[in-house]
Amino acid sequence: MTESFRCAGCGTELAPSALACPACGSLVHAGELRTMAKTAESLAIGGKLAEARDAWDRALHLLPLGSAQHQQISTRVAELTHQIAETSEATDTSPGDSTAWWKRGGAGGLAVAGLLLGKLKFLGLGLLKMQTLFSMLAFLGVYWTTYGWPLACGLVLSIYIHEMGHVSELRRYGVAANAPLFIPGVGAFVLLKEHINDPIVDARIGLAGPLWGLGAGVAAFAIFVLTGSPTWGAIAELTGFINLFNLIPIWQLDGSRGFHALSNVQRLTIVGASALAFFATGQKLLILVGLVAAFRTFQSTTTADSRTFATFVALIAALSWLARSVGAPAS
Question: 156-167 b/e with 16+ CB inside 10 Å = b?
Fold first, then answer.
């Protein structure tokens, strides 16, 4: 028999999972929410931004979706997430001390080595999720029959690295999401469990995929240069093409999310960068990137993030160079 309880305000019988009274609208967990709010604000005042964000995030689960309180706290979580990111960047770019150059270099080398090992470990963690592993194998099987196993494995791995780039940035900002899911013949995606209200956070999460994808493409190109294997060359070029395609600022593609944090002037500059990259590489996909970017230039925007802008331009230049031979006529 299902246990029930009553609203403290009007006495209406409530279901165990109820978050608000359907009769009077009173919040079931009002007392607990007040305590959480005081705790969160105290943590924020004390500079413990991550703990404050986590406290507000726990409060979200006690509020009905769509309620004014849920929207207000979601906004507060987004603001704290942005503050945490800005604080982290300021720490990363703080001036160095007077330590001897060789000591700084050694520490820097160890830091880079640790970072690379951490990234490799992080990439391995994604494969422990059954939905990721099984969907990846299904995806691999489809492309294996068409292109053979070496090219299929390379493409699947590069797409996986792209998606894990999103996951890494989502974790950094504390945004809940599912593991990557592959769809044979389509691609892969990461399903978010909550809405991102901050356009800058959304842009940086979106562009993290092409950034990591660029890293995968450069690694494949380096192996191609060292071995001369045409398969690795093809993987590098296709990886560049796939990630460049994702920069088209339309629908749910990564480029569209990046455009959320760009001003009209910055968007127009993206059009110019696409044109220059097209004349330099001949990659025809840039025509589509530029045309859609030109259309988006006339849409209203209130945000202008210089880091997002610089990242977008750099990705256009690097990915178009990497993908320059894809779709080119045979010589």
Answer: bbbbbbbbbbbb
Q: Are 210 and 162 in contact (CB under 8 A)?
A: yes
CA 252 – CA 61 distance, rounded (Å): 26
Q: Which of 52, 16, 15 is nearest to 37 (CA)?
A: 52
Angle at 206 between CA 215 and CA 305, to 5 degrees: 105
Quote the longest CA-to-CA distance of the chain: 81
- For the chain, the structural domain boundaries read 8-90, 118-322
Q: State mean pLDDT over 214-225.
A: 93
Distance (Å, rounded) from C-alpha 53 to C-alpha 79?
Answer: 9
The DSSP code for 12 is: -
pTM over 0.85: no
> Of all helices (H) and strands (E), which one includes residue 225?
helix 199-227
Q: Is 175 helix (H, G, I), strand (E, B) or coil?
A: coil
User: Which residue has 């929207």 as its token pair?
Assistant: 71
One-character DSSP codes across 94-154? PPP-S--HHHHHHHHHHHHHHHHHHHHHHHHHHTTSHHHHHHHHHHHHHHHHHH-HHHHHH
Produce one character per residue of 29-42: b if its CB has 16 or more CB atoms within 10 Å, e if not.
beeebeebbebbee
Average confidence (pLDDT) over 91-105: 46
Query: What are the pLDDT digits (tens) for 232-246?
Result: 999 999 999 999 999
- Pairing mode of beta strands 5-6, 181-183: unpaired
- The pair phi, psi for residue 329, each rounded to 5°, is -65, 145
DSSP of 137-168: HHHHHHHHHHH-HHHHHHHHHHHHHHHHHHHH
Chain-centroid distance of CA 279 in Å reads 30
